[in-house]
Design a protein that fits this description.
The chain is an alpha/beta fold and 283 residues long. 41% of the residues lie in helices and 16% in strands. It contains 10 helices and 11 strands.
Amino acid sequence: MAKILSGKEVVEALNENLTTRAKALVEKGVTPCLATVRVGERPDDVAYERGATNRCKKIGIEVKHFVLPENASQEELLATIDEVNQDDSIHGCLLFRPLPKQFNDEVVRNALLPKKDVDGITNGSLAGVFAGTDQGYPPCTPAACMEILEHFDVDVTGKKAVVIGRSLVVGRPAALMLTSRNATVTVCHTKTVDMPGICREADVIVVAAGRANVIGKEYFSPGQTVIDVGINIDEDGKFCGDVNFEEAEPIVAAISPVPGGVGTVTTSVLAKHVIKAAERGNK
């Protein structure tokens, strides 16, 4: 049986550390603050906003909400982002995407200052990930993958790592973050030849394929650590990952579950980035 890499365990450790750091900031007269900027009432956005707000408040982070109607103009949204940029009491901003069709995503997301971009959506933040600098912050989902590996003492130094998926949201940042931890990384995608064979040679696999249960037993070999980023609904209406858990779990050494894995950790990573931004601003 594989070791289950529980997100709950990671969250408990993270939150304890973050609560202590938030209290230290408050004692210095700084209240860490997150702004959420949302256009419309998409149910998944509202649900994530609620979860992030609850997590932040428990840690000691203030949350300010900016909600625009579905038919808001790009000028109105840019004015809201500028307000967030100019407000020194706000340390981080979560901008919900995808945006409605009337917006130019490239223009809007890059209007946010990288130093307040706590979810890694701006070109400046992504450049910081690429260069390994402190400019901006990495996207929360791949950062959550790294938190899980670190918490469970999975040392990737010198190891073969495979990332399935090459999106700017997960795949490419995850590959760069693994590289910065001295792994030897291969990125697989829809055009990859013999993906199962490549994956069987890996020590660590991060899966962000975007399809339910698509990665089966032919991708795995004993001793591997598997991080499943996928969030899908299967034919029975249940949450599942991109990895076929029932096929992978008997083979590999460790695996993150869905639900209860990476997704559980992302809001704590968001809070960690807000705390770090507040600490940077207080220096």
